[in-house]
Amino acid sequence: MTDGELDALVESMASLLGAPCVLEDRDFALLAHAAQLEVDEVRQSSILQRRATPAVQKWFQGHGIRSAQEPVRTPSDHALGIASRLCIPARHLNRIYGYFWVIDPDQSIPSTLFPDAMRIADAAGLLLSQNGRHRLRTEVLVRELLTGDETAVRWAVRELAQLTHLEQGDPVRCVAIAGPSDLLDQAGRRLRNGVLWVRRGPQHALAVVAIDQLGTERNREAVIGLLTRLREEQKRTLQCGLGPSVDGLGDLSSSWSGAQVALRVAQLNPNNSAVTAWDDLGVLRLLEILSPQDLQRTIFDGPIGRFVVEGDPVLTQTARIYLDAAGAHGTAAAALNIHRQTLYQRLNRVEELAKLDLTSGVDRLRLHLALTLRDFVQ
């Protein structure tokens, strides 16, 4: 199923009935809407937020739409901002998959059009049913790629190649995404071919993006662009971790592991860019193989660890900026907006508390690692 197929059905419904029309799934998430001449408060909210509010959902369900086998007229409710409308259920094999909503304030849409409207709705129900089965199958196969043994991975690669647009040997990379459930739903519905979208829990998703034969990454750029726009348009937190490129679906777990580390780093700085890439993590890649306990035992033991975790924030900040500047006193003093003499005094105090010598490359490395990784131990 493609968004274009659903859009065409919504346009057909609006044209048939001569009225504004939207299509929502059975959980009231917006799937598509026709060009509209008039929109009430509820539909405007639905289009902007991609989902009707719980109060509105309960109100409509109270009018029997979930069990309806034919179009149902629902009255207006000025308190909720609801205009009178016609609900056409989209069913398949007697199961509800969605609803067409058509604004009809004066109930002027004749019932003689209902049979044709139901044929359009039945086509939508079939498409939504097929999409649901496809999504579940994809989720099972991706789970095997990420956690299965060698035999399971080979099987999942073959099956997923047949089910989707991805070829077995195509290079791919993973994107790990964290954000509100409805925002993830929006992203999943608006992505193009070349991207697999799989939910990994209420507030997490995984995108598998194909890299074309020329090595260009238009699919990755499309995913990142969409997620960035959603974050900016709706002023809500949405974080992404971009994993490394791998040679094919059989190596997907490696990209997923890197994407999760990148997402973990991104979530420590929710106000920064929406995307953190594995390729840019530098020493933070150690987080893929070192647990907090490993870090505590190997890097945060002794005086250095106590200084970094429990020390004066002014001194730890000074040490971090000094080491980030590769030991350049002038650069560090300027970044801290202090005199060099003040910097020297602070660094002497750092050496005393951390029991190290900042002229020693090994000591500087240990301190720099501890300062860089501190947030992932506490």
TrEMBL record:
Domain of life of the native organism: Bacteria
Pfam families on file: GGDEF_2, HTH_30
Span of domain CdaR GGDEF-like: 156-265
Entry protein name: PucR family transcriptional regulator
Residue ranges annotated for the PucR C-terminal helix-turn-helix domain, each copy included: 315-372
Lineage summary: Bacteria, Bacillati, Actinomycetota, Actinomycetes, Propionibacteriales
Annotated organism of origin: Kribbella turkmenica
Gene3D superfamilies: PucR C-terminal helix-turn-helix domain
Coiled coil start-end: none
Family: Belongs to the CdaR family.
